[in-house]
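Fold sample X.
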Amino acid sequence: MKRLSAYAAIAVFTCLFTISCTDDAQGPTKVDATKWDKNPESHFTSQRIIPLETSDDILMGDIKSIKIYNDTYFILDSRNVIFRFDKDGKYLSKIARQGRGHGEYNDIRSIDVLGNEVYTLSSFEKKIRTYSFDGEFLREIDLNEPYFDMAVEDSYILLFSNRCNNGFKNYVKISRNGEILDSWDNFSQNTSFIMGGRFLNRQGSSILYFKPFDYRIFEYDGNSSKQIAEFDFTNNERYPQSEMEDIVAFNDMVRNTEYVRQFNSAAMVDNKLVVTYSMFLDEYGIKDFIIINDLDANKCYNYCLQEQGLCSTPFPGYGYYLCDKALITYSSASGFIMANGEKVDKEILSKISPEGNPVLMRFEFKSGTSDK
């Protein structure tokens, strides 16, 4: 067996235990996810650059998570501050309630937005807290276990955990008061390694969900689950193009199914299922990929985000966010200027300070069926 890096070895350990848990929901046959797309930009209509407003009062740390809600960006940074920006990057408000007092928090693992409220999930403190857009504390829910992600609906909250006591569940549905309503997927063993990701995604009246090392995507409608797709990587073609010096070695690694893929996010765009995932490729580090599965045309395309120049986040595996319209990524302001300074409109460039807040990049998906 090919020697794996330390990261990949840990991920394999996690994968073996994670995929041993199975959903009750059954679904379609496997989708061949090994067709590399040589022209990925054909899936997007446009790229939009969004400089985030900068001032001394709203300087951000590293981005941990981005939630898009009603064309507004809610951004959680490494200091556990939640910033709210409009669609053009103008600052609107922030939530900064770090501490140990009433309505304060020590950590935020996940955020969600519904109506005019922001929900924060604290794994360490085992609580969900709710705030107004302006940071006013509204209420909190005590949880029975630490959880890793959440999606909030009008009548319930769905929780996901991959680190918990033996015999507990991966997915737990609770009422808005914290009462456990349902749960599924038994743990067979504790797991300990997950990169950042968004494993639950509310879309319309349903929630898409998946486990990071189990290549199946499910949809939950509040009552039952159904499997949308299961992706198969066993027949990988050669990767079509790469800027790597040793393209043969890179190709062999990408094609080798012994290397672990971690799914990071999923969304439905029209009738396309879009998934982002990461691979641990030894000396090449972590590389990020995207799958676009056109359910109408019965076609599936797959390509490396960094190699195609679509994204330049400084944190592979963490910096890609999907909504039902677009792929969102970001770059540090200085990194963006260095990489794109000569290509960007001067008016946009004038809004970017090298020491300022990050720059968002929004890639709009094409609607309708693929013409390939």
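Fold sample Y, listed below.
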Amino acid sequence: MVSSSVEFRGSVSADRRLQSRAVLGIVLMVSGLALYSLSDAFIKYLLESYSVSQTTLLRAGTRLIPLFMATFLFGGPRKVLRSQCSSLHLARLGVNLLYTFCFMYTFSLASLTTIYTFSYTSPFFMVILGALMLKEKVPLERWVAIGVGLFGVALAMQPGSEVVEKAALLVLVGTFLGAFNKILMRRLAATEHSLAIAIYPNLLMILTVLSFGLLSHIAPDSLSPYFTFSWKPMPWSDWGLFGVVGALTAGAQYGIAQALRFAEASTLAAFDYSTFFWVVALDFNWWKNIPDAYTLLGAAVIVGSNLYIFYRTRKERADQESLNPKFLKEEAI
């Protein structure tokens, strides 16, 4: 999911400072998000043949290869993975683990369009967590926008559809955890290398799945079927598909990181929702799924609420900048 984008922060040089080339930044952002959507489509396709545990293990493994290779561009693994805040890392790793399992299981239940529609609630959870954890002041109109967005969630859940309701609840839990994960990532970014922030969750995922496998072997009935590790032999073509997933994810992360060099994050934020068009197209071409009226209307309400929150936030920042021209510069540091 998009919730996985990482901005790689190495040493800052003059030629890597923010450049005002918004069109190129938008193209790179949309391309990176398209690669993420395609990666998720491959994962959903592979889950039709392989267990959640096997798919999760190989997904994490293929992601690690390009990430570890990238560490040698920044002084090697020892330098990159050195941590100054191990306790916060552990908290974030636990949250990320649950978040990943929620979405991996949901991929086996629902269409990409349904999953992405509910995942667009992330800004709502970011506002709520920001108010609770960071003591941020949230204006009344933003709370109203969140309420309207939750009405859109209720529409998209299609009351009476057990599969959609189950998938929706899993995605909403996963999205809440993803928003919490982002807040923890922001705190870690002050002291930790971005590659370390990306590598550690994949290492933990591999260790967790292998631990499930060992426990399943020692005590077969101790885990639910969802967590039980099962391995199914794969043809070389499917090994190649897992390799493609790793390459697509790495390309998406790099594209988004580059986009943030050429355009401000506030300019790019609205283009997050371009993923909806990609997943609708992928659902139709791959599985012949067409979103129903409830999903489309719910998505429109959720995205509209998010865009209003984005508009109000940007307006408030502009007002603060007019009163204090140094505000945005300090925010960017």
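Sample Y note: Residues 19-332 form one domain.
Also: Confidence is low (pLDDT under 50) at residues 3-18.
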